[in-house]
Design a protein that fits this description.
Layout (H helix, E strand, L loop, with lengths): L1 E5 L10 E5 L8 E11 L1 H8 L6 H4 L12 E9 L11 E5 L9 E5 L3 E4 L6 H4 L2 H15 L7 E5 L4 H12 L3 E6 L4 H6 L4 E4 L12 E6 L6 H4 L3 E9 L4 H12 L4 E3 L8 H16 L7 E6 L3 H9 L6 E5 L1
Parallel strand pairs: 8-9, 8-11, 9-10, 11-12, 12-13, 14-15
Antiparallel strand pairs: 1-2, 3-4, 3-6, 3-15, 4-5, 5-7
Helix pairs in contact: 4-5, 4-9
Length: 323
């Protein structure tokens, strides 16, 4: 048996139940990971709520197909399936799985999923958020945005889970980075490498006349229409939050010249592509080029509290669950 957080229905954070369930057993190509840390992100909130409703076609119409949520894990391999060749018992590993199940003491992961060994210089807590947030950033900035050295980049929501990785990764690629955040987070965003920081409580970046090659809205708070004047003639607007309006703009700008609007569902990329991004990020972590910013840590029993905190929309970096 193992401890887990389960939810048998969609709804508020109160749907969570702290319970004991059967410990999973690895199939031939799976590893059993003793999970030491997982995370709570905006995607977890949507999974718990069953929103947007169209997503229920994949996760369960009336109730969740997977009662134990959680995309990300960081822990130690306790058992390997008979056909596993990439990992051995005792390996410290991290990554993510679209099959969920990470809100638990143990999780089974296919050895060919997005999983790799943890660099010696980072902890389980620092490793846990990397797959979801940092891989998403790499997909947007490199995959969609084709980021290039000496470009001017603006990161809206620079103090959040995506934003803190985005600032650092954009700097790694040799760009001039402007971060946008609220007053309490200005110094933190500067500390992780932003060349300049705009306090959105005091200044609207869409009205200051400055133009950027890439605008990455990590929180989906500013529309393409609002940002269009702030883009260079061939500039690109990237949003981590896809909605019907943006989808239409993406289709239109794909066939029209000039400024583009783009978005992507990183979790829908082929595993090989996500794993390649993940391995690249692992190298950046191992060499100290980027780091994980952690806001708060919660225990597994405090999962509902952690979800409520993320829902407020003011987290600084990542929310980690220690197990």
């Amino acid at each position: 048996m193992m401890r887990a957080i389960a939810s048998n229905q969609y709804g508020s954070a109160e749907v969570f139940q702290h319970c004991e369930i059967n410990k999973p057993q690895p199939k031939p190509h799976q590893v059993l990971v003793r999970n030491h840390a997982t995370t709570v992100t905006g995607a977890d909130i949507m999974m718990r709520e069953g929103k947007p409703f169209v997503g229920r076609l994949f996760i369960g119409l009336r109730k969740p197909k997977s009662t134990v949520l959680g995309f990300e894990f960081a822990g130690e391999v306790e058992q390997v399936g008979e056909a596993v060749t990439r990992f051995k018992v005792g390996d410290k590993v991290f990554g993510g799985t679209t099959h969920l199940g990470c809100y638990a003491e143990y999780v089974c992961v296919n050895e060919n999923d997005v999983i790799t060994t943890i660099p010696d210089n980072i902890s389980y807590e620092e490793a846990a958020p990397v797959n979801g947030s940092a891989v998403t950033v790499m997909n947007f900035l490199r995959g969609l945005g084709n980021i290039q050295a000496n470009q001017k980049i603006l990161i809206n929501g620079a103090s959040g889970g995506l934003g803190t990785y985005a600032v650092q990764i954009a700097k790694y690629f040799g760009t001039e980075v402007t971060g946008v955040c609220s007053t309490p987070n200005v110094e933190m965003v500067k500390s992780i490498g932003a060349d300049s920081v705009i306090d959105y409580l005091k200044e609207d970046f869409t009205k200051n006349g400055i133009q950027y090659d890439l605008i990455f809205d990590t929180v989906g708070k500013r529309s393409f229409a609002e940002c269009k004047k702030s883009l260079t003639s061939q500039g690109m607007y990237l949003s981590a939050v896809l909605n019907p309006t943006l989808l239409g703009q993406m289709m239109w700008t794909a066939i029209a010249g000039g400024k583009k609007a783009k978005s992507s569902a990183t979790g829908m990329l082929p595993i090989a592509k996500r794993l390649a991004y993940f391995e690249e990020i692992k190298t950046l972590l191992a060499t100290g080029k980027i780091k994980t910013v952690i806001d708060n840590r919660y225990t597994l029993a405090q999962m509902a509290e952690a979800h409520r905190y993320v829902e407020k929309g003011h987290k600084k970096g990542n929310i980690v669950i220690t197990i």
